[in-house]
Amino acid sequence: MATLLSVNVGMPKDVPWQGRTVHTGAWKAPVQGPRMVRRLNIEGDGQGDLAGHGGEIRAVLVYQVQSYHYWQKRLGRDDLTFGIFGENFTVDGLPDDEVCIGDRYRIGEAEFEVTQPRVTCYRVGMRLGEPTMAALLVAHHRPGFYLRVITEGRVQAGDDITLTRRGPEALSVADIDALLYLPDRDPAKLRKALNIPALSPGWQQSFRELAAAQQPKQEPGWPGERAAAQQPREEPEWPGFKTMRVARIVRETPTVSSVYLDTTDGTPLPEARPGQYLSIRIAVGDAAPAVRSYSLSSTPTADAYRISVKHEPHGKVSGYIHTALHPGDLVEIASPRGTFVLEDGTRPVAFISAGIGATPVLAMLHRLAATRDPRPVWWIHIAHDRAHHAFADETHALLAQLPDAHEHIYYTGEAPCPDQPSITQGRPSASSLATLGIPADADVYLCGPTAFMDHFGGVLRDHGLRPERIHTEQFSALPAINPGVTPTAALRPHQPPGPPGTGPLITFSRSGVTTPWSPVHGSLLDLAEACDIPTRWSCRTGVCHTCVTHIVSGDITYTIPPLELPEAGTVLVCCSAPTTEIVLDL
């Protein structure tokens, strides 16, 4: 019979790590005597990052003494004390390859249900001083597992562990863990996993996506509001950069110019999806070539793309485009990319933009107008004044081609003329937006400054729109996902400290940083962090794929072989280093 050997608890605390502070409850220690187990955790215990640990589904973490013995030999360690793997219950028995999801156990006065394997997390490696531990737990099929509390009660070391009910489908903890994190998945097991009610919602969602032949969009167990951890898949039309010619440049406003690009050999251009962007690489002066991304602002034709660029006050590339780029010049362009695209369907559509944020939604409007799409369409745009209202006549003409279009323009810097009923002075408020009649089942496309999108996204959700139907475009770096790391003041991305490297150039296209590689950085993720570029990660060992990033050009090598390679055209930055000059969509 299995036995509870130790009850381990610990409250969250701040721990220094790689120059940062991590708020974590991974430091657990054995306690004597009975402890009350309640729905959310054990008396005296807590979790520092409730997004990935704790809560009703992950109230208690279990690890086996047999795995302790395994790691003592494997790691050559004799200092592995109970609780060091972050577990609440150290048990004799209950191996991961025998315990099944949905199994129920009686321990002392309490009853528990197995809900999921341990989430891959860098903090177990941090606690043990073994940075690759998260990957090792998965690769060696020894993750441990979480319990949900069915019946509250007291437990203590020495209690017997009795199986009270076997879960359906007979999929073990090790089976479920491998099904998510390792290659060569068995479709039949995926279907079985989705028939287990006790499996945590995050893992169920990941398996639904895998069953639909998709990579999981986020680390299982993390709430949806943290946004998709991974960049969705997309296939580039051509690898790296190709040379294109500037066909013409059109001044739209005093600060916005449109650049028309065509091929150098007359070959047709592949069609881009409305809303996608181009990355452009330009050598400005004697500095290393800079890469920036600009949305396509119209429906591409077979012989031309159009991007529209705002001249930022201190923008090196935008300044060059506005002052030094001329028709006939050659530039390097990467294939159209981006997943902020117009979805097919019949639901109403609302485009809400501010300033230069109009560019991707303007391309979507072009597509709807070209087909005289019957869907009701709302066009809501905020500009400073008429002089700085880019594409005003163009959008008005496009909307006139649609059978059910609604135009609402807001000028923050001037009052409209009396004969312009669609223009209002000021900004739309929550109450005025509610009066515009946007249906609750509409697909909404938001583009503009981050604060603008956050505000209006919240307003729309309060108005009854479902979050999954509110689409946003992030021009700059994506919001960071650094679980447990104590937030600090955001810094503008910059060159890394210390002497410059001598290796190949690394370009972070979203952040506007190009810097030579230095082996002092253990990985591309380490280099990005040294530049204060917002990053996304969880395991830092190539397991969870949270750090997956599109690679625009160049090649890499893996310093830690991932348990499963990411899709073509992407890279796991947490465990890779460059072999050539590379451009990352980061």
UniProtKB/TrEMBL annotation:
Keywords: 2Fe-2S, Iron, Iron-sulfur, Metal-binding
Disordered as annotated region, ranges: 210-235
Domain FAD-binding FR-type stretches: 239-343
Residues passing through the membrane, by range: none
Stored InterPro entries: 2Fe-2S_ferredoxin-like_sf, 2Fe-2S_ferredoxin-type, Benzoxazolinone_Detox_Enz, Beta-grasp_dom_sf, Cbr1-like_FAD-bd_dom, FAD-bd_FR_type, FNR_nucleotide-bd, MoCF_Sase_C
Domain MOSC per the UniProt entry, residue ranges: 29-164
Protein name: MOSC domain-containing protein
